[in-house]
Write a structure and sequence with these properties.
The structure is a single chain. The protein has helices spanning about 1-15, 25-45, 45-70, 80-110, 110-115, 120-150, 160-185, 190-205, 215-220, 225-240, 245-250, 250-280. It is mostly helical. It has one domain. Its main location: membrane.
Amino acid sequence: MTSVATATTTEELGPSVRADWKLTPGSGLRMMSAEVRKGLLAQLSHPLGHIITLVVSTVLYLGMQYVMGQGSLRRDLLPETLVGISGYWFLQYASLVMVADLVEEKRGGTYAQSHMSPAPPSLIMLGRLVTASLIGMTVAVVATLVPMLVADVTIPLRAGALVPYALVVVNVLAFTFVLAAVALRSPMVGALHSLFTSLVILLNGSMMPLSLYPDWLAVVARLLPTTLAVEATSKMLFRDESLGDIWSDGTLAWLLAYTVALIVFGGWLFTRNQRRAVRDGRLGQY
């Protein structure tokens, strides 16, 4: 009787939770797709909050540019700052979605329940990261295009600049993973998120180009996510430098080293905190 009930239950739940389930490219992709779909449905079910935040933040950016231009928009500086602000929006929203969802699920106990799946936790987190990147990229594109239309400015396009700007995206996702790793251990990660994103919008070139900063402040700014990548992208877009130029002056080399270090640190910290949470029985609580 028990064996019949067990067989029926297993069959009802479907092949994704069968005892003989194995991680393959196909099954892994299905698990990630389900996680992405769940995350997108959760975010899109309350669009008003995103819209209000986007409107207020865009007005704030334009207001700051009026202040920096002493009552007028500096159209000579706006295109370069728009590259920086796009990186900031991506970081702000991608990390916010990732961290807020994780904290909420830990408090509600659903994060612990997700570990009943045969899929490795890292695969589930990658699905969450895809959701965060889709939301963050959408917001970043809209929040960059609106000021461009309002101020009637354009950003020159160069194919080579896609290389350093791709590293903006990787920078953001690696740092988002670092914050997610911290969120596994502490619900106070929100304060850390606010601190770092505030520093990024002030120092990564969103308010003024990095070349206008004092030397000591530029050094500090380059330690933050997106700053080096925004600087490399700006050099190619606005100073007609090539990939070879930004490699020879060390910008691209430092950017690659910084990005790799951030990826390695995020992976190590997540693995460490995940193992501690499992060992201490704190997957569903802080």
